[in-house]
Write a structure and sequence with these properties.
The chain is mainly α and about 120 residues long. It is about 50% helix and about 10% strand.
């Protein structure tokens, strides 16, 4: 029995002999490979959807919004304190996100942070 396994390198798809691994897999490993093989299309779709709706950058800002393109979103007009707006413009000028996505995410986080407090006071 040979104690090596043939793998394929990711850069050229040529077989590469792996001397560090026995030539057998455990039942759990076989089941995992079979599951991944059977669900690869779904996994790819989920990852693509996640990537399309979630953005990350080096500043730990996460944008996680439901895609609203099918609703044909229109511009909104709101009055904002001028000093806050200037600070916002300065803060966001080098970020890799749209201002619409940043404002939307900020509003979501504000709602989530204050929803229970507001609802509790409203019920009094």
């Amino acid at each position: 029995m040979c104690n090596s396994m043939i793998n394929y390198s990711s850069n050229n798809n040529k077989p590469v002999k792996n001397e560090n691994r026995a030539d057998f897999l455990t039942i759990k490993e076989k089941d995992t490979i079979q599951f991944l093989d059977e669900n690869i299309d779904l996994i790819k779709q989920l990852l693509n959807n996640y990537k399309a709706t979630t953005s990350h950058n080096n500043s730990d800002i996460v944008i996680n919004l439901i895609n609203d393109k099918k609703l044909n979103p229109k511009p909104k007009s709101v009055r904002i304190n001028e000093y806050v707006w200037r600070d916002w413009l300065e803060f966001t000028k080098d970020l890799p996100f749209s201002k619409a996505d940043l404002i939307s995410q900020a509003l979501i986080e504000f709602i989530e942070r204050h929803k229970s407090t507001y609802n509790d006071k409203k019920d009094l």
